[in-house]
Write a structure and sequence with these properties.
Shape: elongated
Radius of gyration: 18 Å
Helix content: over 70%
Structural class: mainly alpha
Distance between the termini: 15 Å
Oligomer: single chain
Order of helices and strands: HHHHH
Number of strands: 0
Length: 149
């Protein structure tokens, strides 16, 4: 069965969201190996922390962000499969996952910790919101009826 342009656009947005989720999940590891933005952010917020405590906090963030990223990837794969199969529940499921994912992303971007600064550096927080943009497009396309050719 041939997919319509509308279906291809919807799946394209979903695969883009999947890719952005993978990138957002890997980015903190790249940061740890190169720029140390997360470690520097923690150190600036908690100047009394030892290097070991900063490293422990970074590791905790990496675990947390990895779990969230893995759940995001699973959510994308599950929803893509449902959309491809034409499941009736795919649209509401995608909408619920969009709301949950966006809520988690905004929490990471905006929540302030006890230092008064956000828990994540802005670059990592913004990277975590990128999949939500693709999800917004995908959900919008899912709820929009395709036009007959």
């Amino acid at each position: 069965m041939t997919k319509t342009g509308h279906e291809r656009m919807t799946l394209g947005a979903m695969y883009t969201g999947l890719g952005l989720t993978v990138v957002a999940t890997i980015l903190p590891y790249v940061d740890r190996a190169t720029t140390h933005l997360l470690a520097d952010h923690i150190r600036a917020g908690y100047p009394s922390y030892t290097d070991e405590r900063v490293d422990s906090a970074v590791t905790t963030y990496l675990v947390l962000l990895s779990v969230v990223g893995a759940l995001g990837v699973l959510g994308w794969l599950w929803t893509i499969r449902a959309v491809k199969a034409g499941k009736r529940w795919a649209r509401p499921a995608a909408t619920v996952l969009f709301v949950i994912g966006t809520g988690i992303a905004l929490t990471g971007l905006l929540t302030r910790d006890t230092s008064g600064d956000t828990g994540l550096p802005p670059v990592l927080g913004l990277a975590g919101t990128a999949p939500s943009l693709a999800a917004l497009l995908a959900v919008t396309l899912l709820w929009r009826r395709s036009r007959p050719a």
